[in-house]
Please model this.
Amino acid sequence: MPDLSVREASAHDADTIAKVIRVAFETPALPSADGPTPPDTGATVVEALSRSGGLVCGLDGTTVGALLFEDHGMALGLRRVSTLPSARWSEVLGALVEKAERVAAARGYDDVCVLVGPELPETSTALSSRSYTEVAQPGETGSMVKALGAEVAAPTAEAAANLGRRLAGLLRAGDLVILSGALGAGKTTLAQGVGAGLGVRGEVTSPTFVISRVHPSLGAGPGLVHVDAFRLGDGAELDDLDLDASIEESVTLVEWGEGIAEALSANRLHVHLSRARGGDVGGGPSGGDEPRVISVTPVGARWVGAGVRSALAGVPSRGA
Model:
């Protein structure tokens, strides 16, 4: 794999970026984004960089890819995503998009979006593999959007439960949450926080021996279907629980569901609990007060515009 480096662009990169964009968009066989050849010049690139910035991707000291940023409220837009014909397009695209997502999170955005022309199916496929989904935007077609997740430190079990309560504030009927992490990682503790946040009836406990429990709502919100898939061998055994009968009316939360529960919904939240300094938390049924890191990854169009990153990180949304 080539040793690619990606950095944020400055005005000094404008002429080089304009050249990369021009070459990329004038090469019909080269996948890119944004569609037809743009009239970008060094001056127009400087203007774009001054508004929102951009990225350049280098290989052995030569710029082989670039993109420009645009502010879209809650989303950071990626425009003029371009690579030179001499570069490996998929690897340069991946490096640029990965860096762009980190920049977006650091700047306080909740989503990242790319306008992809209909004549560029390779780009759409590549972005789909990175969890981007096509979402119609006003006046546009072919926007590929990804909701950013969050990584939150939980120094105590109570902090993990509190994160569950914040997570509950994002959830509505039909949502699927998949919890993963080692034995004793605190999955049930977080599930208890979700139940408290949803305001459901009954104590949320580990359902290992009954596999699933239904907790009706005490108010007007959705109920909670709490599933423990630890003893299930595959998705077929999960299907035998007939969760489809209640999944549209409730929030479904599946512990040990990674690799098993994904087929229940194309829109889901993956939540992984791990030891704060690396590895998996262990040593007890609830992980005690051992510090852990909780990573939440949204999948699917349902989470675009939902503000997952800002809500779970406890910071204001950029689009608010």
